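debug: dumping io for the single-chain case to check the tokenizer round-trip. Nothing else runs in this session.
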Amino acid sequence: MYVYLLLAFLGYLVYQRSVRFSNLSRVKTIVAHDPTLTKMETCRSTQLLTMLTDFPFLYTKSLEFGLYRTYAIPRISTLLQHTRNLVDDEKVGRRYDDTDYILREAVERGGWSADQIANASGDQELLRGKRALERLNALHARWSIPNDDFLYVLSVFICEPIRWIQRYGWRPLDQVEKEVHFRTWSQVGVAMNMHSIPCTLDEMFAFNEAFEDKYMTLKPSNVVVSEATTRLFFTGIPSFMHPFGRQAVSALCDPRLRSAMSLSPPTIPYLEAILGKCLSLGAWVQRHLLLPRSRPSLRTAEKVDSHTGKYVGKWVSYIDTYPDGYKIEELGPKAYMHDGKMLPL
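debug: decoded output
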């Protein structure tokens, strides 16, 4: 009996090893047909395979912690404190969902680049990304935001997932995956009318580090904004665990970020090392024992609900802001709504 179980387990390991890197192989096959990445549809499909199929957890968490980095820039946190959307507890969940849905519409569904728009032939269901980025531009147009601040936030969306996956992932990213990730978000920047976008991934990393060296400093607004988001991240976690959660958040932040947000270093001995080992253990289990995901982890619905005319998200991140679904053109703060409809921007 035990011999058969052992043989079955060994057979599983052989099969697991043969398919574990199948998504990376699919990425390389797709890119081989468009090696210069001139078609955004090439980038979208490969981005889904890498970030949302092989690394969905690290991708999401890297961007959530990336939010903290933007809060540590006083020029950005001052504006966010002024709008109150990331300060008041009753607003911060909606602000998180609005941002998440808008960006996921662009990345998960596409339909905003020139080649995708041409292939859509005017079909609005195939232009969801275009509608989402138009919405994002309209929301930002209310404020005078320096181009460098836009570029910094863009650099966070590019650099942080790569850093997190390189540090905690079950395999390193292939260079072509990094280039696809850079290309995808750089073109989002173009669609948002940013200028002087760094031309290469190395230049983007250099910009990110130079910007933080110059502007990441402590200011009260940094603390105010980050506190509200921290409370959001603790949604559903028993209150007695919140002190440990705060220590864990601090442990996952680098010293410069801690200083800019007035975070004390973790007092639990070796917590940084323990969390790092736990994430490394999870990566080892993924690499050597688990089969690859066969589908990307998508939050956006494939089609609009036929009864409500809205898109119903597939899961709730922290607060169920849109239990009945959302319309792309109506994503945004409640202050921009009147009689249940979004005011024109």
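debug: round-trip ok. DSSP finds 15 helices and two strands in the chain.
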